[in-house]
Amino acid sequence: MLSDVLPGSTHPLGATLQSGGVNFAIYSRHATCLELLLFDAPEDAAPARVIRLEPGRHRTADYWHVLVQGLGAGQLYAWRAHGPLAPERGLRFDGEKVLLDPYARAVVMGERYDRKAATLPGDNCASALRGVVVDARGYDWEGDRPLHRPYGETIIYELHVGGFTRDPSSGVKPELRGTYAGLVEKIPYLQDLGVTAVELLPVQHFDPLDAPLGRVNYWGYSPLAFFAPHGPYSSRRDPLGPVDEFRDMVKALHRAGIEVILDVVFNHTAEGDERGPTLSFRGLENGAYYIPGEDPSRYANFSGCGNTVNANHSVMRHLILDCLRHWTAEMHVDGFRFDLASVLSRDGKGKPRENAPILWSIDSDPVLAGSKLIAEAWDAGGLYQVGSFTGERFAEWNGPFRDDL
Q1: Is domain 151-404 in CATH 3.40.50.300, yes or no?
Q2: Coil, strand, or helix at residue 201?
Q3: Which is catalytic among the residues 94, 101, 271, 339?
Q4: By three-state DSSP, how is residue 362 classified?
Q5: Where is pLDDT greater, at 43 or 1?
Q6: Is there a catalytic annotation at residue 153?
Q7: Residue 339 catalytic?
Q8: Most C-beta atoms within 10 A of its C-beta, which of 164, 170, 306, 351?
């Protein structure tokens, strides 16, 4: 038994700094064994250390946990999960695949990242994503607070962080174009327009390789790490850089009187359909995160993107709530626009629920009480709820009015 490896605790999920080390906790009901992989550098082809979790010592109910002493902020890590590969029962464990923590607060995507390697048999460690341990307490917000501007006084400007300053005509320094820092340089422009809020197209870390061969995923509607700001939108290349640069951007926008609203995509992930890569959720506990098709080896596709998040499963419901609280409390964003929000009303078999638990949980959550909530009240499966969306606090996108314009 290693002296620096302790049992740890089930909560909070993810990687959490504690006195003298880091606690790692993750959910997997059907796994028979989990391995924690620790890396020294983003481009390392193999982990510097592998810690095998013992079920009798590191598992409580369906949660696996371990406290590793001596680790700190900036530590790179990932998981391997061993268990049954039985697609006909909705189980897709592959002990050779390196998996991203669903609660990772930051992500490193090395130059060797290869989405295809996660679809093929064999070890993909050299080309896999890594999570980063983040110290939520280690940032000086300098008294920053949410602005709480009423809807009636709000003018929202939708923008794409990567595209907003990419062209030389933006006047932004080349090294800052297409970044969070580059957006900060254009705050005077937004003020001149009279904008009171920016709605950022997806900035939750997404897979740019989730696209046809030879192309990249530009828009970002292919999320993988819901808690982490998209790394390539940062001008900083250090593992913790994207988190702090995102916070710097929020703080600067707030100083200018501009709120920050995130376009969040909780309806599907970058893992795609049954032919897609095993990057995270699929290899940890497939059924907790995705709605199965009539054939359990396939996926329901109410998102139009290959899979559908099982938002009303207790595990995924907690993840969504924890994620929204994280962006609100630790990243200081002011609100959320929910992409294909009607997916969130579907149950584990894909049927719409009149009072979906996740929607009422969001609506009534005390941490989110001051947040703007905006629903795109339809999905790709034919569900259309404009004017009848669940909850009392959700504003709604008016699709017909938009189309008429």
Answers
A1: no
A2: coil
A3: 339
A4: helix
A5: 43
A6: no
A7: yes
A8: 164
